[in-house]
């Protein structure tokens, strides 16, 4: 293989072309222009060529000149602002601001999710509350500043994607540019002399490059090839995926719904607005958007760790449901566990809490049953010490025949420590030793006023407490099957042996979640492609030298400097060299015919 002589090929003018003045400055200018043309459109990123303050140019005298200068200046500033807004730098800044703006939405109570906490915060912070209110921190996601960032990010991404996609489509429809005159100035370069004809070498190079999945074509005396279009594809996919995620997030926030429902074993739930204990939704949500389904809680099963440091930790925590879709759907069985919800369309039913509902029977003085039901108790600790209220609102009459209402404040413990061993606190969450403690009241519960009440608390402002024969407050601890008799023939209350359990379900509907997930995965793959795939171009020139021997030149150019480019060029050169080997010098000493011909190495690679 002959040695590489970069100087001879560099300064030669093409046939029929006038010879430029061969000075260092002219050569540098010519080389820079040729390399720039060879590397043109390796990226679809816009290039800013005009800086602010130079849009209007020179202003001619007179009013007409001022108007023309002002028009050029305004147009230039508008284009510059649009270019900045649609740049990747500004898009990343807006994305960062959007993430930063979501922080107060997570730390500060939001009026759309919990208005009571917002009011409590305002009551507790007389100075800070009004400031947060003016800044929109109590409704971050619907505030003016958050919406402005959101919309600007949309505009930035769309304004970035549309022109770059159009430009990239044009690149795909076009061909790689022709080879520069001086391939020696490119980052990766190799050359050798061969006995094969130039046309044969070019055909071999074209075949090799296409086998390596380069887009290649013949251009005069060279083969031009390009590879790595997936880099720009990944970049565009990343931007499109961000838009899909933003649209899905906005769609989900506007049309979402979320509600809670406590269901006792044996009871059911229908997905209607009136069935929820608590419900909140997005601004554009309609009750017609609720997914039609219903379910019944057949049984809740909870088992707990009995010994060791994790005593009381749930081991089994599941709800057996019978559900149906639509008004006339077929009944189906399923198990709902923590983080394993029931999924029906866009709706998910999560199991969020559990407690006990002791069954009680209340009788009046004549023995008539006026109340018989399982009453859900609200847990207060990890061992399910629970409190609640039993309200008898209708059908009760006192011994004197007066229509009254009864109320009982209750404390329930599934595992009682025993009399004389402390207060009413449960020792274990399972039903090992259940006890129900009651205090009785009679009078008016206040429900007739039409004001909402907490189902777990009693309003005793219009009620009197029952007292025993000694004038002491009537209270009792009941075991399952025991009865507390009310004084003066007022009746009785029995703690039945049938203790039910309840489960709380959170029903969420967020229609854009699937699109958001798809956008997230697409963004990851697109970003990986734009980071790890290199777009590069390769040229193979085969010409006849002054001595009649074919000179082969190969060079490569990438979007950015990479050590892999010379290595890849060396591998391609080796494949071409197999079919067009180096012609030995005639003056060289005879060598073994079976000796392997050395393969030319690309400049910058590790091959020797």
Model description:
- The protein has 608 residues and is an alpha+beta fold.
- It contains eleven helices and 22 strands.
- Strands 4, 6, 10, 11, 12, 19 and 20 form a seven-stranded antiparallel β-sheet that branches.
- Helix 4 packs antiparallel against helix 7 and helix 9 (229-255) runs antiparallel to helix 10 (513-532).
- The longest helix has 30 residues, at 144-173.
- 28% of the residues are buried.
Key terms:
seven-stranded antiparallel sheet, elongated, six-stranded antiparallel sheet, alpha+beta, disordered N terminus, 608 residues, 31% helix
In brief, what are we looking at here?
By secondary structure, the protein is α+β, with helices and mostly antiparallel strands.
Architecture blueprint of SSEs:
Elements: H1 6-10, H2 24-38, H3 62-85, H4 88-107, H5 115-124, H6 128-135, H7 144-173, E1 188-194, H8 198-211, E2 215-219, E3 222-227, H9 229-255, E4 257-264, E5 268-270, E6 278-281, E7 293-304, E8 314-325, E9 332-337, E10 342-344, E11 347-363, E12 369-374, E13 378-379, E14 386-392, E15 405-413, E16 435-443, E17 463-465, E18 475-478, E19 483-486, E20 491-509, H10 513-532, E21 536-544, E22 550-558, H11 564-579
């Amino acid at each position: 293989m002959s040695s590489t002589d970069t100087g001879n090929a560099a300064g030669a003018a093409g046939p029929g072309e006038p010879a430029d003045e061969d000075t260092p400055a002219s050569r540098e200018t010519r080389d820079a222009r040729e390399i720039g043309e060879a590397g043109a459109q390796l990226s679809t990123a816009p290039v800013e060529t005009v800086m602010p303050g130079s849009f209007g140019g020179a202003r001619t005298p007179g009013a007409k000149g001022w108007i023309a200068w002002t028009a050029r200046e305004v147009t230039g500033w508008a284009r510059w602002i649009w270019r900045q807004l649609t740049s990747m730098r500004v898009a990343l800044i807006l994305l960062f601001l959007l993430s930063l703006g979501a922080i107060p939405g997570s730390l500060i109570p939001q009026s759309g999710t919990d208005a009571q906490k917002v009011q409590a915060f305002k009551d507790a912070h007389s100075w800070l509350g009004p400031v947060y209110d003016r800044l929109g921190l109590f409704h971050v996601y619907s505030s003016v500043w958050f919406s402005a960032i959101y919309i600007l990010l949309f505009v930035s991404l769309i304004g970035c994607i549309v022109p770059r996609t159009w430009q990239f489509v044009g690149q795909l429809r076009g061909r790689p540019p022709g080879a520069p005159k001086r391939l020696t100035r490119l980052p990766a370069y190799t050359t050798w002399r061969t006995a094969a004809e130039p046309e044969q070498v070019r055909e071999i190079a074209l075949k090799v490059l296409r086998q390596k999945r380069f887009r290649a074509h013949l251009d005069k005396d060279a083969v031009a090839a390009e590879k790595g279009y997936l880099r720009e594809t990944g970049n565009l996919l990343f931007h499109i995926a961000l838009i899909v995620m933003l649209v899905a997030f906005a769609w989900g926030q506007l049309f979402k719904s979320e509600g809670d429902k406590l269901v006792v074993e044996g009871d059911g739930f229908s997905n209607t607005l009136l069935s929820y204990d608590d419900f909140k939704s997005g601004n554009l949500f309609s009750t017609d958007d609720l997914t039609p389904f219903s379910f019944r809680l057949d049984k809740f099963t909870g088992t707990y760790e009995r010994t060791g440091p994790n005593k009381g930790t749930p081991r089994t925590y599941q709800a057996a449901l019978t559900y149906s879709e639509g008004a006339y759907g077929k009944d189906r069985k399923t198990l709902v566990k923590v983080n394993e919800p029931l999924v029906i369309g866009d709706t998910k039913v999560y199991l969020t809490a559990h407690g006990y509902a002791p069954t009680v029977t209340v009788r009046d003085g004549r023995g008539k049953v006026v109340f018989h039901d399982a009453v859900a108790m609200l847990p207060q600790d990890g061992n399910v010490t629970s409190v609640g209220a039993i309200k008898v609102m209708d059908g009760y009459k006192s011994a004197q025949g007066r229509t009254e209402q009864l109320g009982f404040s209750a404390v329930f413990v599934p595992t009682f420590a025993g009399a004389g061993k402390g207060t009413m606190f449960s020792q274990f969450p399972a039903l090992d030793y259940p006890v129900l403690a009651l205090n009785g009241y009679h009078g008016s519960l206040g429900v007739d006023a039409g004001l909402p009440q907490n189902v777990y608390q009693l309003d005793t402002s219009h009620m009197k407490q029952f007292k025993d024969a000694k004038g002491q407050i009537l209270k009792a601890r009941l075991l399952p099957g025991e009865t507390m008799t009310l004084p003066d023939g007022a009746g009785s209350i029995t703690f039945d042996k049938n203790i039910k359990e309840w489960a709380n379900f959170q029903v969420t509907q967020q229609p854009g979640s699937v699109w958001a997930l798809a956008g997230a995965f697409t963004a990851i793959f697109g970003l990986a492609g734009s980071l790890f795939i290199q777009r590069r171009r390769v040229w193979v020139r085969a010409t006849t030298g002054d001595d009649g021997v074919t000179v082969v030149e190969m060079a490569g150019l990438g979007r950015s400097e990479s050590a892999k480019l010379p290595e890849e060029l060396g591998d391609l050169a080796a494949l071409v060299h197999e079919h067009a080997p180096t012609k030995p010098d005639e003056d060289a000493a005879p060598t073994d015919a079976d000796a392997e011909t050395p393969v030319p190495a690309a400049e910058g690679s590790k091959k020797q």
